[in-house]
Amino acid sequence: MAKIKTNKTPAASAPCPCFSGNPYGDCCKPFHDGEKSPQPVQVMRARYAAYACNMPQFIMKTTHPDHEDFAKSGWRDSILVFCNNYKFTGLEVGQPEVDQDTPDKVYVYFTAMMAGAKGGGAVSFDERSVFLLTDDGEWLYRAPDANYKESVNVISKRKYNAAAKTDRPSGFSAR
Ligand SMILES: [Zn+2]
User: Fold this and answer.
1) Span from the CA of 161 to the centroid of ligand 1 (angstroms)
2) Least C-beta-crowded within 10 Å: which of 4, 101, 153, 164?
3) Which residues are in the YchJ-like middle NTF2-like domain (predicted)?
C-alpha cells in the first residue's frame, strides 16, 4: 500500500468537493469535522466529498451498521484504494423522498461522476440510496434501493477501468 494517499482536506475557502458551489467551510466541512446533519441529502453530499478527499473514516462513520461492508476487515483500505483510483468530477442530487410507511427512511437520488485517476475514461452512476435515521438522530447510509434500477454510463469513449462497476464501495454504493 505504498502509494495510497490519505486525507487531503481542502481549505475552508476552497470550493466544496461535493460540487454544491459553496465554500468547503460552509458546506461539508462541519460534517467531516463531526457535526451531525439533520438532512440525509447533506450526508450524501458529505460522503461524496469524503471520497474526493480520501476520508474513509467519514464513509465508515456514516454507514449504517446493517450495511454488508460494516466492520469488515480491510474495509478502510478498500475505500482508500477506491478513493485513490478515481477523480470525483461531479455530483447531482435530486429531491429526497420520505418513505410512506417509515418516516425514518429517506430515499436520495443522485448522479455521481468519476474518472480514472490515471487517465481512465469518465463514468457516471445513477442511484437511489436509502438513508435511515438512528435513535441518536443521525442519518446513515444503508444501501442502494434494490427496487431502483441503477445505471452506469460511460461518458467518454476512452476505455475506463472495469473496476468502476465492480469495486465500487459503499458510499454512493457501498457494495
Ligand atoms: Zn459540500
Assistant:
1) 26
2) 101
3) 40-142
CA 99 to centroid of ligand 1, rounded, Å: 25
In one-letter notation, the amino acid at residue 80 is L
Calculate the alpha carbon distances from 137 to 38, 53, 156 in Å: 8, 25, 41
The Å distance, Cα 144 to ligand 1 centre, comes to 21
* Residues in contact with 148: Cβ distance below 8 Å, sequence separation at least 6, in sequence order: 127, 128
Could you state, in order of their start, the residue ranges of all structural domains in the chain?
A: 24-166
CA dist., res. 43 & res. 127, Å (int) = 15
Q: What is the CATH number of domain 24-166?
A: 3.10.450.50
Q: What is the pLDDT of residues 81-119, one digit of tens each?
A: 999 999 999 999 999 999 999 999 999 999 999 998 887
